[in-house]
Write a structure and sequence with these properties.
There is one protein chain. This protein is an alpha/beta fold. It has two domains: about 5-225, Alpha-Beta Barrel (TIM Barrel); about 230-274, no CATH class. Helices cover about 45% and strands about 15% of the residues. The protein has twelve helices and eight strands. It has an eight-stranded parallel sheet with strand order 6-5-4-3-2-1-8-7. α5 (about 85-95) runs parallel beside α6. The longest helix is centred in the C-terminal third of the chain and has 20 residues, at about 230-250. The protein is globular and about 60 Å long.
Length: about 270
């Protein structure tokens, strides 16, 4: 199952975000090679903001449902690692054990915020390097990848983001993820300055302009995530459907917009008797 490292050598990977097992199954059905388990998606679908409120245990349980529902590799967003190096070590052991293909860690302080919001705070590069080293030392297989996200660009500037990225590579990170870059030019400059596999976040309503995946690939990024696209589409469609149901008292006019019973059963591999 864990072939993310091999896939990365080919480059050009798009990883939509899943917020539960069923959404991950749809991602796989659509033909995507990787699924991204979004921390925001897990938190928001649990009725909580993306501020690091989920525990390691909760994240592991939710992620295990997703990992076990698909054959494609899964990247787990582990936010700040649930604490210091000791907690990061436990997180790596946990997510590798459930069969994930990679763990993503970020260099925000413990009271983290969505990467595209103002008011973020960073830990020191030295502190985050210690977390990366703990993660690298904790994994049993080099096929389990460590993704280091830096939020420095929006806090202390692109130059600091580049400096941090280089330190994170030296510490053993397999992939570098510069969060919340604000232009094509910044993505290009970062790619020229950092010699490592790179991941880009093409989220909606954030600091990053809408850039096509192929353009990211040309700029030197081998992996592009769309962490909340499916979640946001699902929530708006559900909101509209409930408004219609409340107004009309029937779902009849919406049947054409629904996944049918047969389609759901096929996705789940369920064949009811009779």
């Amino acid at each position: 199952m864990n072939n993310l490292k091999r896939l990365l050598k080919k480059g050009g990977l798009i990883a939509p975000g899943a917020f539960n097992a069923a959404s991950a199954m749809l991602i796989e059905k659509a033909g995507f090679p990787v699924v991204y388990i979004s921390g925001a998606g897990l938190s928001n679908s649990s009725g909580r903001p993306d501020t690091g409120l989920l525990t390691l245990e909760e994240t592991a349980v939710f992620s295990s449902y997703i990992v076990n529902s698909v054959k494609i590799p899964a990247i787990v967003d582990a936010d700040t690692g649930f604490g210091g190096p000791r907690e990061v070590k436990r997180a790596v052991e946990t997510f590798e054990e459930i069969g994930a293909g990679a763990i993503q860690l970020e260099d925000q302080a413990g009271d983290k915020r969505c990467g595209h919001l103002a008011g973020k705070k960073l830990v020191s590069a030295k502190e985050f390097v210690a977390k990366i080293k703990a993660a690298v030392n904790a994994r049993k297989s080099k096929g389990f990848l460590i993704i280091a996200r830096t939020d420095a660009s929006a806090v202390s500037g692109l130059s600091d983001a580049v400096d941090r990225a280089r330190l994170y590579i030296e510490a053993g990170a397999d992939i570098i993820f510069p969060e919340a870059l604000a232009s094509r030019e910044e993505f290009a400059a970062f790619s020229r300055a950092v010699d490592a596999p790179l991941m880009a976040n093409m989220t909606e309503f954030g600091k990053t302009p809408y850039i096509m995946a192929d353009e990211f690939f040309r700029l030197g990024y081998s992996l592009v995530i769309f962490p909340m696209t499916a979640f946001r589409i699902t929530m708006r469609a559900t909101e509209d459907a409930l408004a219609t149901l409340r107004k009309k008292g029937t779902q009849k006019d919406m049947l054409g917009k629904m996944q049918t019973r047969e389609e759901l059963y096929k996705l789940l591999g369920y064949k009811p008797e009779g």
